Amino acid sequence: MGTKKESTVPNPVDAPSAKLQLPVEVIGADLYGQQFFERTRTQTIHRDGVSILLVNTLAPDSEVILRNPETNEEALAFVVGQSREDDTGHVYGLAYLHPPADPWHMQFPAAHAARMVQLECKGCHSVRTLALSSIEVEIFEATRELTHPCKNCDASRTWGETSRNAIVKEPGKSAAQNPNLRSVVSPIEERRKNKRMAMKKVACIRFSGVEVVVACEDISKEGFRFTSHKEYPEGTRVEASVPYTKSSTNIFCMSSVVYCHKMPDGQFRHGVNYTRTRGSIGWDP
Ligand SMILES: [Zn+2]
Hints:
The chain has helices spanning 134-143, 187-199, and strands at 17-18, 23-29, 35-46, 49-54, 63-68, 73-86, 89-96, 115-121, 127-132, 145-150, 155-161, 184-185, 202-207, 210-217, 223-228, 237-241, 253-262, 268-274. By secondary structure, the chain is mainly beta.
């Protein structure tokens, strides 16, 4: 890059984000479920996330671990979008899953009012007004899109700009009495809320005749994730029942572990894909 900038502890900045190339180690699974470790640099640092240049390709709803190699401090972050791509790699916007995470000890001024943007889910076309965090504003300004969970789709989806009006559709709320009332949710808050809701769901993993009940997250039509003390290496074929209810009839389906990575707490995070349509009876061994 020909920059003379040294990688030192940054000074306090008086902007909501800073263009700073600081070393970062990224641990995650790529678009194909392959685990990777990559040393790279941040492009911008925000109060609520970072943008980084990455050679590996991330899935739109990926989560990665970001580590500051100078202190070994880590933060879990999820992809909010990709602002550009060139010969050197992809620039991804990553928001901290548990803010205020701050592996680089940046000092930002007091938070500004969140930017409100009306977006439409490209899956089900529902419209919502979202309060964007600073890293999300960066991605949105570059691409006019964001990755954000959709309750209707029950999955992460791409949301784009729209001129249609957002309408609250939550049951029990007086949407009919207030048809112009807009639903305003911060994507991070919603993701965390969805996470908590999802964490209550359990799955049962059957492997070598042994059944283990695990907490699972990010359940979609294609699969789910779970964390356990036991390691199921990538490629392991398991049978999975999701959601699982004890003392009830549960349908298990053939699945395979698409990635497995060790978390800082010693547990293993697994991504599981169903290898057959859920609920099918009989499968190839
Ligand atoms: Zn949707």
